[in-house]
Amino acid sequence: MPETQDPHVTQRSSAKFVYDFTEGNKDLKDLLGGKGANLAEMTNLGLPVPPGFVITTEACKVYLDSGTEPAALRAEVSEHLDALEQKMGKKLGQADDPLLVSVRSGAKFSMPGMMDTVLNIGLSDASVSGLAAQAGDERFAWDSYRRLIQMFGKTVLGVDGELFEEALEEAKQAKGIRVDIDLDAADLQSLVAHFKDIVAKETGRDFPQEPREQMDLAVRAVFDSWNTDRAKLYRRQERIPGDLGTAVNVCSMVFGNLGPDSGTGVAFTRDPASGHQGVYGDYLQNAQGEDVVAGIRNTVPLADLEQIDKASYDQLMQIMETLETHYKDLCDIEFTIERGKLWMLQTRVGKRTAGAAFRIATQLVDQGLIDEAEALQRVNGAQLAQLMFPRFDLGAQSEMIGRGIAASPGAAVGKAVFDSYTAVKWSRSGEKVILIRRETNPDDLNGMIAAEGILTSRGGKTSHAAVVARGMGKTCVCGAEELEVDTKSRRLTTQDGIVIEEGDTVSVDGSTGKVYAGEVPVVPSPVVEYFEGRMHAGAEDADELVKAVHRIMAYADRVRRLRVRANADNAEDAARARRFGAQGIGLCRTEHMFLGERREMVERLILADTETDRDAALSQLLPLQKADFIELFESMDGLPVTVRLLDPPLHEFLPDITELSVRVALAEARKDANENDLRLLQAVHKLHEQNPMLGLRGVRLGLVIPGLFAMQVRAIAEAAAERKNAKGDPRAEIMIPLVGTVQELEIVREEAEQVIAEVEKTHDVSLKLTLGTMIELPRAALTAGQIAESADFFSFGTNDLTQTVWGFSRDDVEASFFTAYLEKGIFGVSPFETIDKDGVGSLVRNAAAAGRATRPDLKLGVCGEHGGDPESVHFFHEAGLDYVSCSPFRIPVARLEAGRAAAESKGSDSR
User: Fold this and answer.
1) Catalytic residue list contains 863
2) Residues 336-366: tens digit of each pLDDT
3) Where is the PEP-utilising enzyme mobile domain (predicted)?
4) The CATH number of 560-649+689-902 is which of 3.40.50.11720, 2.60.40.3500, 3.40.449.10, 3.20.20.60?
5) What is the domain class of 18-252 according to CATH?
């Protein structure tokens, strides 16, 4: 998220568009961009930074809004260029001893490689000989000139970069060499002429020879690069606001391509992969900065610099220590050595792996550089989630057969199966399986539970397969469209004609979306083993990463206000959730208890046309439901368990109308129609809905089918009574789904209270059962004050609330137009992944406030998928909710983010 802007920035930027490095500091990133602010900071620290100046992000914004630079910009640039020339004792591009500058992008947030840079600005036909004479190296001068034309031609003039690369390759082949440093001055002079011809042919103009024109065009090109496709895509991926603009850094050139006593490199104050302290980085002799990035020559480890140039190495090590202590974090550094003189070209807080983030945070606490609260802010839930998923051994040889959407991270290996029945059967026999379907539906739940991973050829990140898989912590790849899934023939066929038959082994990588034939070795996650209780963070042999995670999680748990519950439908999930730190169950979906063999009982209940048939179906279901709840209350003894009464779209429990119609039609044609099928088809037609998600479900089903909710409430109450009489501590909360008006809730509550009273009398026990509702319809949110009169708690069902607020069908919209919306910037992220704060979030805030105005002790929670989303957890903390509920696997993430939200809030209050 954007940092709080310096209150003086607006005043300064309105009058000034250019700042010398000596005028800025690291806190002016909004104005000077990250690179410029840090160059200024290093200048202030007395470190060897080449002189230069920064054109502000405000100038870029004016340019992007109007298509032209601010009127005052040219004069300000001229003023700072004059000062730079005086400082350097030479003028930009002068013939005898030219000043050269680099023009580099620098947004507030690091966007490495996404925007443009041009080096060696100021070189021309007139000044190249002067540079050669000044440097005493003709080859260096012509090498620098060809680099300028190549970079300028591609970046500023829009020439296809391949044309320059091909010309360079031809020159090397003609000379019989492999690397460009073996080209001599004459070769490079010829190459410059060739490059200029390419520019003239492709653009219709000669390469500009006037130095100031070069610089002005390069500045404009950097501004334009803010809105290139790659930059916009990166911002969407990293969720960087699109209206920030980029600063432009104009810096006097220092040269790493002046011979073997010169070079360029990148250094890290700690290993960004592991977090370990040491000497990490790369160095390349006789090179400019882009050579390291482009990989045109092999670099040497940074440690080798000690033998190449010990004085520069020792100075660099000292500067690295200074920067890390000053920034109190891992620093990423770019440097150049020019004939034995070390120059610092950039520093920034370095990107790191998830594991390194946790290790570094605790290391800095131990070193006294930061406190625990700051360490908590240095990590995030997304990083923790990465550490929890198993992963494939990337060093292993493997055959990729396809790729889809990375829907639920992890690495899963198993035998391919094409239906849930086989998945369950083989799993019970000890086989590990991958369930492969075109798409999944609720009937596949058992197979999904049995499978190691799920692969579908259709659907996206919010499809049924993806949502359920994430909830269970299952690896899932969806929408692998290049794979043809034939469930009847039980095979999968790739575009290359590779066939995977049922029983063949496949490997699915939910972190990348890649699918492999055969078994790819899996590396287990020690972090999950820690959360599961199989590894103790205090043990001598505990993994260093686990110790770091344990320390930060312990602090997060101490400071967080939000409690974290689990979405769990059975005792196994509940037990795992408790091991992961769940403080109760926030959502038990009872419809999941009615799938499989019990589905026929529910079907008979829904289709019953007499009271006798209905009572018979209810009497069959009651003991099964009661047994389910007894197991849950045992697993969560002493903690709250919120049970949502039956809430499926009706079609999930009815025969498929098309299949049934075909069966009846064929039977009638044979003149052997079954009377039961005819009656069933008539009943299904009567109950058929065009939009089942907005039809007869939730509280509506409970009101239309007499005795349904009463049976469920009785099962809950009897299970709680038996548990309490067994000296247990059941804490059941009964949740009524899809309420849109208080009258619905009043009717169900009255019936439920009567049932509870009967059970209390029968079992001679006092039960403290609470009754509340899901707020998942806009009308419920808008009338929350009235609904709170009959509710002990609210649980926001943000999945359906998002659907009904936006008018989206989650099963349909992602595949049809979400990609376009994300590409066009309408969405920064799917509203099903992160809560829409302005729309859905506004309803949540208002409903919470209205509910508590009516009932101050109203308990507030959320049980939609957003309960485990890091950014959404922060919103729920700010909105004043009491708890979030999420899948068991996401509980540690929610705990961490709840702690971060509390620490962040406390820090804001103190400021």
Assistant:
1) yes
2) 999 999 999 999 998 888 888 999 999 999 9
3) 431-513
4) 3.20.20.60
5) alpha beta
